[in-house]
Known about the structure:
The complex is a heterodimer. Chain A is mostly helical. Chain A contains five helices and no strands. Chain B has one domain. Chain B has a two-stranded antiparallel sheet with strand order 1-2.
Amino acid sequence: xxxxxxxxxxxxxxxxxxxxxxxxxxxxxxxxxxxxxxxxxxxxxxxxxxxxxxxxxxxxxxxxxxxxxxxxxxxxxxxxxxxxxxxxxxxxxxxxxxxxxxxxxxxxxxxxxxxxxxxxxxxxxxxxxxxxxxxxxxxxxxxxxxxxxxxxxxxxxxxxxxxx
Amino acid sequence: xxxxxxxxxxxxxxxxxxxxxxxxxxxxxxxxxxxxxxxxxxxxxxxxxxxxxxxxxxxxxxxxxxxxxxxxxxxxxxxxxxxxxxxxxxxxxxxxxxxxxxxxxxxxxxxxxxxxxxxxxxxxxxxxxxxxxxxxxxxxxxxxxxxxxxxxxxxxxxxxxxxxxxxxxxxxxxxxxxxxxxxxxxxxxxxxxxxxxxxxxxxxxxxxxxxxxxxxxxxxxxxxxxxxxxxxxxxxxxxxxxxxxxxxxxxxxxxxxxxxxxxxxxxxxxxxxxxxxxxxxxxxxxxxxxxxxxxxxxxxxxxxxxxxxxxxxxxxxxxxxxxxxxxxxxxxxxxxxxxxxxxxxxxxxxxxxxxxxxxxxxxxxxxxxxxxxxxxxxxxxxxxxxxxxxxxxxxxxxxxxxxxxxxxxxxxxxxxxxxxxxxxxxxxxxxxxxxxxxxxxxxxxxxxxxxxxxxxxxxxxxxxxxxxxxxxxxxxxxxxxxxxxxxxxxxxxxxxxxxxxxxxxxx
Lengths: 164, 507
């Protein structure tokens, strides 16, 4: 899984540098000098890294360890070492995305008040005795620091719920 | 405007003594002292909580200082950064869980001491050695300022461009995991830095017709994503939401005092490792890990009766901790004087300098010397105050290692989200910080060092600007100037030496 993930990541980088180089060609010479050089350099190096990752993956297969077995072994090791598992990674990324969506839709004040308790209860399995005071105190600290002390007007969401 | 007036109050020819007085005056304000205490407490929290660390502390706190007076804002950030490693050793000693990367070496002797019931002694030595190291590091930095002044006066656009090229060669050094991956990180930084309107031609680069991208990507939004959101994903992806440690430790004040005395009993070792740590810190990219391990090795090689090193020898703790804080003074030197960040934390701090309208580089020595002295004094005071505050609360801070991730994640997420919105002043910044979070997590997971990305992002636009100015004023002939040639030679030697030592080691 790690090798497969690395191949995907290297490929994404290769595409990214390709797009950078392609877009840079349109600009005048002074403007494109640095982005084009970075893009071209990136294509070469990420290409090499991609090739190395693919070769490592192929070698693992050739050594008789099918990718599924290798993945299971690695997953087991990851669990033992308390490292990230793909399932946990997707879960936490989804939670982060939920936070962003809540803030974009309802704004910071409602988004924080909604996200913090839901996250603590569902993801952290915290009891309401911990969740309620923690959320209220945290929300008040953010309000006092950013709204009262710094006088910041935080994003109110697409519905404009900037009631504070 | 007000910010620039404050900074330009130091004219080019101002005497160093006056600059020192001015720097000290800025530090001695009531607001600054108050902020310093707050910074020490926040820095202690980030340092003592495993998984957080100094880079995240700086990234999350930069939005809080946005719009502040530059002296207050930078003083706050530097004070915070100064105590992160001091507090970071506490969970290391108590539970063998390093709060920050460079404090790993402290565990070697600190944790065995804790297991022998001497945790207080180890922590007393650690706190005192950290304070001493921080003060020595700042004093060495102060001593080097007059030496560097004449060098900085001789630098034009061509020399500054070549200096940045020289700085970029340190990407190799900070890419110990993999040199090609480090270069990829730096190239990504260069690409991201070029987003926005090109200052010389006004062509929109990677703006895709979006108005909010015309000003480019703010360094803080990038840092919050690459470090802040990425750390949230790392913490959550471990899937372990229990406590980091279940051990409860009680510490007596008598033991703390014994440890403190040991630093002065071993004064020659303390001084040596502090000075070595400072000079290792000056070399951009070597980082805190190198400073602490070099000094630990030095102590083990040069001290007598070293059979207990690694089994609970207090001299091991002293050597590591003096170096750990001293290196920050050293790392500050290339950051402010040459515009080359000495570490990833210094790269973030450099971003903060730029945010305040201060351009780090040789001109700081002539036009902003009072700011340099202010930073030197802040480093000294923050280290002393930090240690003083940590003495009575060190036992409680150790309990932060028992804090559950489910309580930490929402805090970091909200602070990073609010910070990115405040700095970017657009809701799109939230989306951007999420994308950078994924990029940062991917880089962390697949061993792409993230410091070169920040280095490329900061140095890229400067290099582009200085190259443009040098070519406009002198054409390609700027390459024939003696100092440019010397810097070019140094860049080639640095690149060659780094590659040789890196690949030679592997062979």
